[in-house]
User: Fold these one by one.
Assistant:
Number 1:
Amino acid sequence: MDLGLRGKVFLVTGGTRGIGLATTRTLLEEGADVLVAARTAHSIERARAELAEHPRADFVQVDLRAPEGGRRAVTAAVERFGPLDGVVNNASGFSIDHGHPDRAAWLELFELKVLGYEAVIQAALEHLRDGGSIVSISGIASMRYWPLSPHVSAVNSAVEALTRHYAAALVGRRIRVNTVVPGTTATDRYEGRVERARAQGGVDAETARKLIDSTVPLGRPVDPTEIAATIVYLSSRLSASTTGATVVVDGGAVVVPDSALPSAGSR
Ligand SMILES: NC(=O)c1ccc[n+]([C@@H]2O[C@H](COP(=O)([O-])OP(=O)(O)OC[C@H]3O[C@@H](n4cnc5c(N)ncnc54)[C@H](OP(=O)(O)O)[C@@H]3O)[C@@H](O)[C@H]2O)c1
């Protein structure tokens, strides 16, 4: 299937690791040019090395929590590759604590995933071709209880609301706006959960991994390439009639209650 992405120009935020890196790689393999925006020089250098065989990838170091961050990322993409065909709002990061999130934790996430995504969209609208695409990444905490994470639930819900707003606002320009909603996905964040479960439960890493995997109805974390494939599909002409959608890729976690999981009997 030809996705029609050859020569198209994309901005991917948080494209140096996990889901963002997998998305960047898939877009490059489909022939697109990709400008990746991320916060640290370290993650940029690592991603640059991993994508060394792709001359059409470039990077900008920018803090997307900063008021001018979104504009800086968009400007870097346009200066490097020209007008945009697609934007992927994916950057995320929050401190994990063991208590109710304090005000600083709320602000950290809100500034990045709500104000930051909004700033990227606003700056991109001046340079996004009519018929282009915006995909934002939320997470299943918007749809089900996630202990100690009301800020993650609220912020991911806001990401989905932003998508619906811009999907409606931009139909006149045929710019499609969609959300992809990952469940537990095998990125650095998953490895962090394994480490915490290991330390808290006093179990080995293999047992901790099995415990976490048993909370995913399909029995394993989602692979970042599976989320990337959904993002790239929604960024392509194959989804030309899809806008305002919220597409869940979670191994069944939203529709299967914990009490119906195969592991529930042994808890
Ligand atoms: N992984 C999961 O299980 C899961 C589940 C639900 C939803 N999601 C969502 O999926 C998306 C990707 O998750 P992931 O696990 O792949 O992420 P990740 O591995 O934590 O990577 C986050 C990316 O965002 C960048 N970033 C963080 N803070 C930034 C800032 N202030 N300015 C610019 N860039 C920043 C990071 O760059 P640096 O490394 O340079 O900081 C990195 O490239 C996120 O929106 C996340 O909320 C993930």
Number 2:
Amino acid sequence: MLGTILHGPGDVRCEEVPEPKILLPTDAIIRLSASCICGSDLWPYRGLNDTSQPMAMGHEYCGIVEAVGQDVKTVRPGQFVVGSFCISDNTCPHCRFGFQSSCEKREFMTGAQAPLARVPLADGTLVATAELPSDDLIPSLLATSDVLGTGWYAADAARVQPGSTVVVVGDGAVGLMGVLAAKQKGAARIIAMSRHKTRQDLALEFGATDIVSERGDAGIARIKAMTNSVGADAVLECVGTKESMTQAIKCARPGAMIGYVGVPHGVELDGQELFFSQTGMLGGPAPVRRFLPHLIELVLQRKINPGKVFDLTLPLADVAEGYRAMDERRAIKTLLRVQ
Ligand SMILES: [Zn+2]
């Protein structure tokens, strides 16, 4: 079959790869309904992570179960499933506390930018729907697997409450999903920090009430001016740079929580500054598995439409163009047709 392999910085190819097989009795093989490219795939693509070995790319997935190992009990061939990018058993202490992304048996999903993928720990990782969903819901169901689940976690970790004033730092796909999540959680005011027209428009559509295009000190001053010099109740940090983290901390009021889901690259925090900011921080890889049943239900009931975050659809053969378009910020997020 064809699959996506990253050979080095800027060098991603759709090429012939072996079909995945059941390797352990707890595995499932799924036939993907669609796949996509994640903002985090751009880190190795840009050479910011080690790429000395060829890497099978892709960790966002949904599709039909093709085969299961002999110990798999909760999913069976023919069912439609969505799974998290973090593989988890959903039974260990961390999983039971709702932090499946720190599962004692955690693995990270790979190889899902392809027509077939192997999912380890299928019982713990996959959530099946009662019926096969209609085709038009596939992009939104695919979004729950990572990008929406991560934006949702940012809002959850930032303790967004009904009536909250929320600032979302970052207008990538995760930031836009954070806006959607804050809206669903009843935030009264959602300020999206973005300087790109198309992303601003999508943020407004997902529920943002205000747009701030300034950054750095000017951005912080705008947020302060909009909140009577108080700051926001909750801040979602969805980028992972030193600048975005500083922005997030300085936009938060004392007592606020910051949900940070951008993978930090070159971020160092000043202990004294953090101490006197009196803000709380919770972040890390999103425990998407905790939220999946709820998010899938919201999609199936057509209460949310996170699939609108995909603004480019390409066949798998053109995956390299999908990466380029996201790297150059011509596309917010690329959906890949894999069948
Ligand atoms: Zn676990």
